[in-house]
């Protein structure tokens, strides 16, 4: 989203905050015998490494809770002064009955919040739905001095205070997981409006979860994979492609077959771009010298190229402007653009008039620019070269196949020997065995090359699963 907003010309202030102190962090740190803030700092750094691998841009600000205690205490004081919060034995609770619009985001009714279900039972609360703004210090927990005694912030107040610090009380977009709508974001609205009546967020964007067997991935269920576990075997671009293959509000079910498909799609994209660079290189000097007409105007691109560029640009803008609908972006019109490039590269090998050749060269170049721009905005354009991306993808494929490149080259040689001796059964078996492991052999002239592919066995299993899940056709009688 950040890249797209910038592409549209907006000057974006992007804030991503880190909760570096809360109940779970304290509990985990105590189990490890580590300082909670040290534990948080270590994981924040590791998170940034993962985000960099996934081509995520750095935010304008990355505040941590522990660095903003003054702002948090100031906001709590404002809320108390507005008679919307109260202190009990060192704890400070927000009084939800003082928030007339409580439930506006989630649609939850205050009377539906029964004690012991969504909220903790605490007889000191005036209303069971009241939530903590400040928690009194407990033994073995970090704490900070405050007007209500030593303690630490409640979870919800942290986000409001840091948002107000960097974005003011009125800002455009607030994001988060769909599970945060209630109570977290609902409580944020209530406490922010209590501190400042003009507080508002124009758009709330809530993302669906990555699921495993249609269950939300979570540590408690033990059904999660870390980003690094996945990128050990798959290129980060393949993982990013997989993640944007569904609308951000929709759940996305993790599956190896989809990661394989995403990896294959990324390879095809970058092979097309590399082929384009290689094919245009011999013509580069000629096109620069002779690519303009007598009046200094560039040779016109073909009508088909103009149509391809216009369709791709319009399709991309329409879908991204429709609530960031990334799921169909790399299919359909985008694939047509790749096919146009590949088809044009074939045409370039044919003999033709100089003007036609120059027009074709410029046409391919302009379509490639539009394709590259789409990839850039989607975060699928890394700083390395196309050749390096292809090599990295091949390395991951070899790792998944449990092979070294020397093993593949040896098998290619064995296949060549088998074909020469007309042992086609052995030749076909070598090719089939490699395909089952995600390695495709392609005969290009007298040479055999290899590239990653979706393992054939996995393709067949996925197809069988779909067929088994599809009900038989129904017949109707009158």
From TrEMBL:
Enzyme class, UniProt record, top EC level: ligase
TM regions (residue ranges): none
InterPro entries: Cys-tRNA-ligase, Cys-tRNA/MSH_ligase, CysS_C, Rossmann-like_a/b/a_fold, tRNA-synt_1_cat_dom, tRNAsynth_Ia_anticodon-bd
Keywords, in A-Z order: Aminoacyl-tRNA synthetase, ATP-binding, Ligase, Metal-binding, Nucleotide-binding, Protein biosynthesis, Zinc
E.C. numbers: 6.1.1.16
Cofactors: Zn(2+)
Domain Cysteinyl-tRNA ligase anticodon binding: 407-451
Keyword Zinc: yes
SUPFAM superfamilies: Anticodon-binding domain of a subclass of class I aminoacyl-tRNA synthetases, Nucleotidylyl transferase
Keyword match Ligase: yes
Residue ranges, annotated region (Disordered): 458-478
Pfam families from the UniProt entry: CysS_C, tRNA-synt_1e
Domain of life: Eukaryota
Gene3D superfamilies the record matches: Cysteine-tRNA ligase, C-terminal anti-codon recognition domain (1.20.120.1910), HUPs (3.40.50.620)
Descriptive protein name: cysteine--tRNA ligase
């Amino acid at each position: 989203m950040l890249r797209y907003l910038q592409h549209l010309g907006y000057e974006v202030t992007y804030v991503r905050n880190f909760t570096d102190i809360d109940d779970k962090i304290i509990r985990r740190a105590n189990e490890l015998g580590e300082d909670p803030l040290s534990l948080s700092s270590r994981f924040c750094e590791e998170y940034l490494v993962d985000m960099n691998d996934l081509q995520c841009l750095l935010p304008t600000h990355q505040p941590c809770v522990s660095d903003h205690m003054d702002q948090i205490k100031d906001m709590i004081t404002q809320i108390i002064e507005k008679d919307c919060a109260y202190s009990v034995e060192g704890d400070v609770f927000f009084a939800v009955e003082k928030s007339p619009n409580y439930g506006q985001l989630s649609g939850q009714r205050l009377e539906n919040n029964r004690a012991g279900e969504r909220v903790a039972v605490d007889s000191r609360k005036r209303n069971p739905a009241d939530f903590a703004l400040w928690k009194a210090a407990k033994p073995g927990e970090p704490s900070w001095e405050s007007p209500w005694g030593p303690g630490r912030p409640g979870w919800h107040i942290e986000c409001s205070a840091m948002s107000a610090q960097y974005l003011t009380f009125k800002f455009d977009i607030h994001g988060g997981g769909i599970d945060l709508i209630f109570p977290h974001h609902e409580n944020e609205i209530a406490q922010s409006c209590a501190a400042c009546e003009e507080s508002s967020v124009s758009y709330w964007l809530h993302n669906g979860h990555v699921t495993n067997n249609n269950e939300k991935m979570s540590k408690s269920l033990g059904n999660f994979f870390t980003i690094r576990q996945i990128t050990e075997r798959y290129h980060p671009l393949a993982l990013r492609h997989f993640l944007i293959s569904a609308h951000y509000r929709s759940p996305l079910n993790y599956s190896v077959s989809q990661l394989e498909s995403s990896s294959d799609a990324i390879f095809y994209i970058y092979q097309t771009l590399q082929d384009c660079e290689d094919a245009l290189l011999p013509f580069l000097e000629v096109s620069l010298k002779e690519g303009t007409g007598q009046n200094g105007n560039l040779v016109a691109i073909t009508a088909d190229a103009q149509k391809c560029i216009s369709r791709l640009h319009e399709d991309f803008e329409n879908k991204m402007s429709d609530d960031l609908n990334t799921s169909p972006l790399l299919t359909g019109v985008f694939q047509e653009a790749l096919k146009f490039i590949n088809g044009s590269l074939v045409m370039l090998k044919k003999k033709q008039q100089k003007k036609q050749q120059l027009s074709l060269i410029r046409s391919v170049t302009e379509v490639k620019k539009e394709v590259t721009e789409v990839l850039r905005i989607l975060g699928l354009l890394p700083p390395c070269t196309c050749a390096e991306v292809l090599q990295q993808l091949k390395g991951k494929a070899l790792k998944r196949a449990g092979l070294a490149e020397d093993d593949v080259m040896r098998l290619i040689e064995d296949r060549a020997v088998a074909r020469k001796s007309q042992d086609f059964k052995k030749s076909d078996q070598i090719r089939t065995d490699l395909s089952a492991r995600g390695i495709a052999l392609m005969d290009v002239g007298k040479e055999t090359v290899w590239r990653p592919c979706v393992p054939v066995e996995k393709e067949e299993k996925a197809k069988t699963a779909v067929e088994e899940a599809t009900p038989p056709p129904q017949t109707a009688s009158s």
